[in-house]
Write a structure and sequence with these properties.
44% helix, alpha/beta, 301 residues, globular
Length: 301
């Protein structure tokens, strides 16, 4: 499992301790790498400009097809720490990174978060039932409470590597946590009274979000595969019965299946991005789209 691999490499890299006083007195920034853009947002907010960040997954790219570019490998050769998020590509990548930078620390920023299982396609009588699961769901950061776990792990490591700016990191972490807690409260208010409603998605990335707010995620994709014609017909029937007004599709996946269902039942296609940089504004925007898709008016909230 990726967490075990990452923690093993952490032990190997533990010889890389705090920055020296000479480094602290210089203008050199920490060289930080992250797997995904939301982690980069956390690092930027917490570091206050004291870290130069390399993001492995570029905007619009899929973690499922990622392969590091030569430029990224060059940057990673001088990186102080890599924050991994638990996405699938990391386990295969870590040995390669160790070969180019044996002193780089590898920190699972979501360590300790309970991992849920991904739902299969909402068909064959399961209808999105939470008991019908397949692989582990890696998208832990899409719950605000989990995002705070990621942020705190990042802050601890930045402080460990750069104790000279510890007060800055603590102060900025507190500010970030307040913003995420305010976001959580805002979304709870927005989604009040929607428990048990269904959020139809193409790729099952939103399970931590739906679990957090009492919704049910119904994916079209099953075990990473497109639905067959029979499955597509059944999904369309289910979506019509559920009076679905929108199907959520992330930009990292190109598929006609959601469009077929949407066209058949008169629903909208809504583009959402679980990997967007501005975590707070992105999740707020997604919540607003969910409210509109559920047909909940401002007056009823």
């Amino acid at each position: 499992m990726w967490v075990v691999a990452a923690l093993a490499i952490v032990a190997l890299f533990s010889g890389c301790g705090s920055r020296t006083s000479e480094q602290e007195d210089s203008d050199e920034k920490l060289h930080v790498a992250v797997s995904i853009l939301p982690q980069a947002y956390f690092v930027d907010r917490i570091s206050g400009g004291n870290a130069a960040v390399t993001v492995l997954i570029p905007p619009g790219s899929s973690p499922h097809t990622y392969d590091p570019s030569p430029r990224q490998m060059t940057e990673l050769a001088t990186t102080d720490v890599l924050f991994v998020a638990g996405v699938p590509f990391e386990e295969a990548l870590l040995p390669r990174l160790h070969s180019v930078n044996p002193h780089m620390r590898v920190i699972p920023s979501g360590d300790g978060i309970p991992v849920r299982r991904s739902e299969e396609s909402g068909i064959d009588g399961h209808d999105g039932d939470h008991d019908h699961h397949t692989d582990n769901d890696p998208h832990t950061w899409l719950s605000p409470r989990n995002a705070i776990v990621h942020a705190r792990a990042i802050a601890r490591e930045l402080e460990s590597l750069d104790s000279g700016h510890a007060e800055t990191y603590r102060r900025n972490l507190d500010s970030l946590v307040r913003d995420i807690e305010a976001l959580d409260a805002e979304i709870r208010q927005m989604l009040h009274g929607t428990a048990g409603r269904k959020m139809y998605v193409f790729h099952p990335a939103w399970g931590y979000f739906t679990d957090e707010y009492g919704l049910i995620q119904v994916p079209i994709q099953s075990e990473g595969k497109e639905p067959g014609s029979r499955q597509l017909a059944e999904l369309t029937e289910h979506a019509a019965a559920d009076s679905v007004r929108a199907i959520f599709v992330q930009m990292q996946y190109a598929s006609q299946s959601p469009h077929v269902i949407a066209d058949a039942i008169g629903a909208r296609i809504v583009l959402v991005d679980p990997l967007a940089y501005d975590y707070v504004e992105n999740l707020r925007s997604v919540a607003r789209e969910v409210i509109e898709a559920l047909g909940v008016s401002q007056a009823t909230r």
